[in-house]
Design goal:
Elements (H helix, E strand, L loop, with lengths): L3 E2 L13 H11 L3 E4 L16 H20 L6 E9 L5 H9 L5 E5 L2 E2 L2 E2 L4 H5 L3 H21 L4 E2 L10 H8 L2 H16 L3 E5 L14 H10 L2 E5 L12 H10 L4 E6 L2 E6 L1
Parallel strand pairs: 1-2, 2-3, 3-4, 4-7, 7-8, 8-9
Antiparallel strand pairs: 5-6, 10-11
The structure holds zinc ion (ZN) (2 copies).
Length: 274
């Protein structure tokens, strides 16, 4: 059984429930370690067509204080952690450094959601309008940007490492069969190995149009070959998504030889067997 879930969101961003509601649900789910990893504020100009930035900024200090209070009230049976999901942009490194240094986060999950100023995980319609040759360029850039995130040193955990497939999985699978993709993946995940960071395996992909765990089998094989550390998580955006499909996630990870999920508390990593 997976006993920790470190990747979760609250209504301070675009998720549904409060910090208190999420905590109560996590406890009821039987988790022993529950981490909040609300999205970071973004630099000016990086916006989705409809965005939660104003709400996030207005409530950010309260959010941090709420989670810190719960963290202090942790017991050996149930621990709350203060994490952060940084929306990483390679051109905004200084912003990222300041965001992660602004509060005493237990851990930082680094996630790519933007390519330039485009939030690529926004809509199916946008992807439907992109020809496959162009999609291939987007995938390649995604792994270059992921390399920059890994090298930046701002994160200990790398989130949903093939989120770019969200709205075009068939094209993405075809791209994965190209020599260019093989080189790109080997370079990026080689960096992850070199830096001794943790790769997330996320059940969130099961809830999206790609209908596949992040990352898919090819990257899982590479991760196992490279001996990467992994962290299994849900990316819950509502109480009902905490520890989402964790039985399936555990079975999937075991297929590739994994039997433990890493967590990070106070920036110290440790493995918890399933
Ligand atoms: Zn994310
Ligand atoms: Zn997330």
């Amino acid at each position: 059984m997976i006993r920790a879930d470190l990747h979760t969101h609250t209504r301070h961003s675009h998720a549904v429930n409060s910090v208190a509601e999420m905590t109560r649900a996590a406890r009821e789910t039987g988790l022993e370690t529950f981490g909040f990893s609300e999205h970071s504020p973004r630099p000016d100009g990086y916006l989705y067509p409809s965005d939660y930035q104003a709400k996030l900024l207005a409530g950010y200090a309260d959010y941090i204080a709420e989670v810190q209070a719960l963290r202090r009230a942790s017991t050996p049976q149930f621990t709350v952690l203060l994490g952060l999901e940084i929306d990483f942009m390679p051109d905004e490194l200084e912003f990222a450094r300041q965001a992660v240094a602004a509060h005493p986060f237990d851990y930082v999950i680094g996630g790519l959601h933007f390519q330039g100023k485009w939030g690529f995980d926004w809509s199916q319609a946008e992807w439907d309008a992109i020809a496959e040759a162009e999609r291939f360029k987007i995938y390649a850039r995604y792994y270059r940007d992921l390399g920059a995130l890994i090298e930046s040193g701002v994160a200990q955990i790398i989130a949903h490492p093939d989120l770019i497939k969200i709205y075009s999985r068939e094209s993405f699978d075809r791209w994965l069969n190209t020599p260019e993709a093989a080189r790109a993946l080997r370079r990026t995940f080689g960096l992850l190995q070199e830096r001794d960071l943790i790769m997330e395996i996320s059940s969130a992909g099961l809830r999206k149009p790609c209908a596949e765990i992040y990352p898919g089998p090819r990257i899982m094989r590479l991760a196992a070959e490279l001996g990467l550390k992994v962290c299994l998580s849900s990316d819950a955006h509502a109480t009902g998504q905490i520890a989402y499909a964790f039985d399936q996630l555990e079975t999937y990870a075991r297929e590739y030889g994994y039997a433990e999920s890493w967590i990070v508390a106070g920036k110290q990593a440790r493995a918890i067997p399933f």
